[in-house]
Amino acid sequence: MVFDLGFDFGTSGARAIAIDRSGTIRARAQTPLSAQTPEVWRDALFFLLEQIPIAVRSHVRAIAIDGTSSTGLACDRAGTAIAPPILYNDRRAAAILDRLRAIAPPNHLTISASSSLAKLLWACHSGYFAQNTPLYFLHQADWIAFLLHGQLAIGDYHNALKLGYDPETLCYPDWLFDAVPAAIQLPEIVAPGTKIATIRKNIGDRFRLPPDCAIVAGTTDSIAAFLASPARQPGEAVTSLGSTLVLKLLSRTRIDDAHFGIYSHRFGDLWLAGGASNAGGAVLRQFFGDRQLAELSEQIDPNSASPLDYYPLLEPGERFPVNDPELAPRLAPRPESDVEFLHGLLESLARIEGRGYQCLQTSGATPLTRVYSAGGGAQNRTWSAIRQRCLGVEVVASPQTEAAYGTALLAASGAGS
Ligand SMILES: Nc1ncnc2c1ncn2[C@@H]1O[C@H](COP(=O)(O)OP(=O)(O)O)[C@@H](O)[C@H]1O
Ligand SMILES: O=C(CO)[C@H](O)[C@H](O)COP(=O)(O)O
Question: Residue ranges of the Carbohydrate kinase FGGY C-terminal domain (predicted)?
């Protein structure tokens, strides 16, 4: 018996899922992330490994890791982070967007405060990364995988998209090398699922993993959620209802439009056209606990549209379907009834999702036929019904909604399944 193991490092927690060759889940573990620091990621990785029963762990064939997209960090030759990571939602790079506009092609997806390239350039020019020695710039998933395989610096073309890597020509464009200081080593990029190396000996011994356990290139958290779903036909989509709202529509055409925060990830011969809104479950959690969310949702009539028109953000700034770093949250008026308030929030999030899919199709993506749901909000049947009414297509419950399952499938593909 062999198993493949996927790790998902999301915004609020980390999870691991081990599957057998038939794709059946044979072990799972999860832990909250108290902070987004390399130390917390490393401790979570090791904790999750320990939670996988030894009977499974000792037969793991391959491991893959996903992380939050465009969370980046710089490390030295030993792989030690030299400054706190810059998280996916960090907006400090807004300060260098004019500089980026001057070097990147017009309307390029990296011209956004949330892109990895903007963060890297901001960090270099503000002195956040001291540059007297060579530094490696990695994404979160690359760095966590490095802990397991020990090779600096290797990344995948999903995480590298927001760094400016071109997934069509499979190389970094020349203008990017002109922009990045010579002391910064960009990761070598491979396809997600490519075997990078076998497990480091000390880690393999410590966790009783087989010495030939392969560590394969990972992906982003929302692409992992897409992989977990059955969506494989152009027109099928997955919405990740996690802390943020992420849309991925499988398309025959590649579409990119920084004006609306639209970009496309390579997905075999197809494209995952999409965008990520800052609105989402994090705002729901600001007002309600998960149990309360479930109880209140039961009392909502999903067939009647809420007249409340919110824009549920934690703080100003939106990426998609409007790319506006100043967009203000709108959460008023709050009715006395919590049921009505939640109805307004879920309806408003469904409207943002609907506008997002509309925007993707208007921009040339393959027309939407069906939406699968992933993430913490996927279990909410009331919300699914509201979303189906707003989207005008079938919203289907996915048998597997966890990103870690998609990452386990990626590990299996890397191992040859
Ligand atoms: N019943 C529910 N209805 C709607 N949203 C929910 C429900 N239960 C949990 N959530 C939301 O799911 C989110 C967590 O989902 P998860 O996929 O773990 O997110 P992430 O990894 O992005 O932090 C929380 O923000 C929470 O508000
Ligand atoms: O808000 C997020 C945190 O990661 C989204 O997952 C992310 O922005 C989506 O990015 P990608 O399309 O590159 O997976």
Answer: 239-413
Chain segment 84-110, per-residue pLDDT in tens: 999 998 989 999 999 999 999 998 999
Ligand 2 residue neighbourhood (C-beta within 6 Å): 68-69, 88, 220-223, 244, 246, 274, 276
Containing 144, the helix (H) or strand (E) segment is helix 140-149
Q: How far apart (Å, rounded) are the C-alpha atoms in residues 162 and 117?
A: 7
Q: Which of 220, 272, 353, 402 to mutate to test the pocket of ligand 2 (most atoms within 8 A of CB)?
A: 220
Structural domain harbouring 258: 231-399
Q: Does 286 sit in the ligand 1 pocket, CB within 6 Å?
A: no
Diameter of the chain measured on Cα atoms:
61
Q: Is 102 helix (H, G, I), strand (E, B) or coil?
A: helix
The ipTM assigned to this model is: 0.96
Give the number of whichever ligand sits closest to the CA of residue 71: 2
Ligand 1 closest atom vs CA 281: 25
The CA-to-CA distance between both ends of the chain, in Å, stands at 14
* Alpha carbons 45 and 7: distance in angstroms, whole number: 8
User: Mapping DSSP to helix (H, G, I), strand (E, B) and coil, where does residue 126 land?
Assistant: helix
pTM over 0.90: yes
213 & 119 share domain: yes
- With beta carbons less than 8 A apart as the criterion, state whether 147 and 45 touch: yes
For ligand 1, atom 25, the nearest C-alpha belongs to 281
